[in-house]
Amino acid sequence: MKKIVVFTGAGVSAESGLATFRDADGLWAQYRIEDVCTPEALVRNRALVIEFYNKRRKELLTTLPNAAHTAIAELEKHFDVEVVTQNVDDLHERAGSTKVLHLHGELKKLRSERNPELIVPIEGWEQQIDDRAEDGALLRPHIVFFGEAVPMYERAIEIVNRADILIIVGTSLAVYPAASLVRYTSSHAQLFVVDPGEPDCSAVRNPMVHIKEKAGAGVPMLVEKLIANLK
Ligand code: APR
User: Fold this and answer.
1) Known catalytic membership, residue 69
2) Ranges in the chain, pLDDT < 50
3) What is the whole-number distance in angstroms between the Cα of residue 224 and the centre of ligand 1?
4) Residue 212 buriedness (CB in 10 A; 0-12 / 13-18 / 19+)
5) How far, in Å, CA of 15 to CA of 8, rounded?
6) Which of 2, 32, 125, 135 is the 20 to 30 A CA-CA neighbour of 24?
7) Residue from 106, 192, 195, 211 whose mutation best tests the ligand 1 pocket (most atoms within 8 A of CB)
């Protein structure tokens, strides 16, 4: 069975209503990264950081997967599929994808500030500023902040390296080390990019097909073709 890896960014969730980061109306146009997405921010203005993730978590509760997430889940009926996502939402899982690796953490989890292995699911959307973990340390969002290690990166490289087909959806490929994953495809892998914009594909070595469509239209179209080619 052919192995397909789907590497996604915020664009795959845009048509579900979640803001991307670097589009004109993106999150980084509304907030400064250094105020809400760095370890220093968590020390300097903890309340703002907790509020930023509480707001995104609350929004997620009324957000649904879109046709792109559903089509990616559908692929699993015909291929060996793994999703490597930069997204912290759970829309891939809710659409039915069963193997999802979150490079940058998960909105619906918190972790001990002392022990990064002590990860707990959050009930509802609101983390209280003084919530503590079982080890007594304060809890923090289970999110990889800028400047922090990306623990799942090595695992992601192994996954991408085994892909026969790599589908890149809705990422500007602007953030490292995530963006460098495209360098680790095997020489025979087929690459597809689904994005209405122009992601930075300078690191891409393999021949690539760019489907300049929004994910909600482009991904189902590509999935239909890949399944039809099996017959
Ligand atoms: N369908 C497909 N792609 C879309 C859509 C859509 N409807 N709308 C926007 N896009 C594309 C944009 O053209 C862009 O290429 O999605 C990409 C969004 O890029 P970013 O906003 O930079 O998001 P992402 O690449 O996921 O950011 C990577 O940066 O801030 C950090 O940790 C954060 O995981 C995030 C990382």
Assistant:
1) no
2) none
3) 23
4) exposed
5) 14
6) 125
7) 195
72-78 contacts, C-beta under 8 A, 24 or more apart:
72/6, 72/8, 72/12, 72/97, 72/167, 72/169, 72/219, 72/223, 73/97, 74/223, 75/4, 75/6, 75/223, 75/226, 75/227, 78/226, 78/227, 78/230
Give residue 157's pLDDT.
98
The size of the chain, in residues, is 231
Token digits for 176?
Answer: 């490292």
Q: From ligand 1's centre to the CA of 212, what distance in Å?
A: 14
pTM of the complete model: 0.98
Pairing of strands 119-121, 105-112: antiparallel
Q: Tell me the three state secondary structure of residue 65.
A: coil
Per-residue pLDDT at 120: 98
